[in-house]
Amino acid sequence: MTEDQQDSIGTSRRSGSRSRPARRRRRPPAFIAIPAAIGLALFALPVLGLLGRAPWSRLATLLGSDMALEALRLSAISSASAAIISLFLGVPVAWILCRYEFPGRSLLRGLVLLPMVLPPVVGGAALLFALGRRGLVGSPLYETTGIVLPFSTGGVILAGAFVAMPLMVLTVEGALRSLDHRFERAAETLGAGRWTVLRRVTIPMIAPSVVAGTALTWARALGEFGATLTFAGNLQGRTQTLPLAVFVALESDRDTALALSLVMVVVSLAVIVALRDHWWRSG
Question: What pTM does this model have?
Answer without folding.
Answer: 0.82
